Structures are given as C-alpha cells and as structure tokens.
Amino acid sequence: MTDLKEKILEEYKNIEKTFFGESTELHHIRDNAKEYFKTFGFPNKKMEDWRFTNINPIVNNNFDFVKEKQKIEKNVLQNFLIPDLKTNLIVLINGEYSTENSKIISENKNLLIGNIKDALKTKKEIIEKHYTKYADYKADGFTALNTAWALDGAYIHIPADLELKEPVMILNVMDSRKSKVIGQPRNLIIAEKNSKAHIIEEYYSLGEYDSFSNVVTEIYSDENSNIQYYKIQNEELNSCHVGTTQVFQEKNSVFSSVTISWG
Quick one: average pLDDT of 22-44? Predict the structure, then answer.
C-alpha cells in the first residue's frame, strides 16, 4: 500500500487546478505549506501536543482524493439538520461547497455567507488579510496539509453593527459510499465591530468506507463583537476527524465556544 504522505504529495499536481485562489499571495502560502508537509509530514508521539494521540488509523490508511463533486440527496441531508431550526445553511460535501443544498435566508447587502472559492471574486483583499493569519501551517502537519490541499470551505463575513438574528449552520458531510475519502474544509469567519452571530459547525459521515475529515476554522472577532460558536461532531466509527479552530479576538470582544463529540 502506498504511504499516505507520499500519495498526498503525488496528488498535489493532479488536483492543483481545482484549488481556490489564483492570487500570488494564496498560491505562495499554499506552496510553502506543501513544502512544510513534505519536510515534516504528520505529527508523531515525540511531539508534546500529540504524545497521547494515536494517528495510525489515519496515516496507515489509503484514502482517495475525490476527483469530482459528490452529490447527496436532500432527503438524506435532512437527517442531519436540527428540526424546525430556522438557519442560514452552508453545506460542504467532502470539503466542497454544495450550491444546490445550501440556503441563505438572512438579508443584508453587506452580509456574505457562502464559500471561500466564490467569495474570492469580491472579497479577495479581505480574505488575504485574514487567511492563515491565525492557524499557522507550521504548527503541525495536519494544519499544513489543510492549508496546502483545501479545495473550499465556508466563508462568513458579518458587517459592523449587525446582529444576525438567524444562526449560520455549516453542515459538513463526508460521503464515503463509493470509496475511502479525505476532505479538508477551510473555514474563515470574520465578525466586524459590534456585530453578533451564532455559528454552528456540524460534522457527519455516510457510507461503509473509511473517511477522514481534516478541518481548519479561523475566526476573527473584531472590537465589541459577540460570537457564540458551537461544534457538533457525530461522524461514524469508520471516520477519523482532526479539527483545528483558531480565534483572534480584539478588545472587548466576546467569544463563547461549545464542542460536543458523539462520533
């Protein structure tokens, strides 16, 4: 079986054209992260932060990179939603944005709730200002892997002085019904001054084959902003999940976090 690290490096050129961000800045960051991963690879138990974590189920597996977007039936996705919750819904399937399943209900001309790949068309300078500024790819191999190989992810930009009444749910589903899969969502959330919002990240999986979610979420909370953040991880037993959440707070901002892991 091919070593997972080597397989990932071999796939870089094959999937490079599907990466988001054609700017020099993002391309430079991605290349640097790839080189870091090439040099240091996955974390190991000699590293203090990882000495109690067994990552063999990940590194000894032969995950496939999905070459085309997966589609999941709406009636299947309904099983993962919170009943009767009125929410802005972002759906990511194997780390890629699903336009047909996502639904934004809040209306404000300066509010942007969607995905990074599309947001780069209008918010390029803002994304470049914040992207990788809080989750350092040199922190560990998983963050480097996500930084170099992420295909897409959620992008939430809440303008100043807006209290977002409806929460934003980022529904991440790993679909391994056809093969073993690896997904690497990269989420960026920006809350400007005096804004307020509730953000929910949910993680589920489908299928009999193994799956691996390697997620990085960066959150910028400007002065006097208030973010209530919830993460629910309920993937199946044949799934592996590595999640990195980095938050940067300006003065007088409030960030509250609740994480629930069932899977």
Answer: 89
Residues 6+ apart with CB under 8 A from 3: none
pTM of the model: 0.94
Query: Looking at beta carbons, which pairs linking 76-80 to residues 24 or more positions away fall under 8 Å?
Result: 76/206, 77/101, 77/171, 77/173, 80/171, 80/173, 80/202, 80/204
- What one-character DSSP code corresponds to residue 260? E
Cβ atoms of residues 116 and 8 within 8 Å: no
Pairing of strands 181-183, 112-115: unpaired
Tokens of residue 23, six digits: 């700017």
Asked whether 10 and 111 are in contact (CB, 8 A), the reply is no
Integer CA distances (angstroms), 21 to 76, 94, 107, in order: 31, 19, 27
Looking at residue 21, its pLDDT comes to 62
- Give the position of tokens 């976090």: 257
Distances (CA, A) of 29 to 137, 146, 160, 169, 191: 9, 12, 29, 28, 23
Q: How far apart are CA 133 and CA 122, in angstroms?
A: 20
How far out from the chain centre does Cα 89 lie? 15
What's 10-55 look like in SS3?
A: HHHHHHHHHCCCCCHHHHHHHHHHHHHHHHHCCCCCCCHHHCCCCC
β-pairing, 181-183 vs 196-206, is: unpaired
Q: What is the dihedral of CA 83, 86, 91, 97, to 10 degrees?
A: 170
Residue 245 β-bridge partners: 217
As a whole number of angstroms, the distance between CA 189 and CA 6 comes to: 32
Q: What is the pLDDT of residues 67-122, one digit of tens each?
A: 677 789 889 999 999 888 999 999 999 999 999 999 999 999 999 999 999 999 99
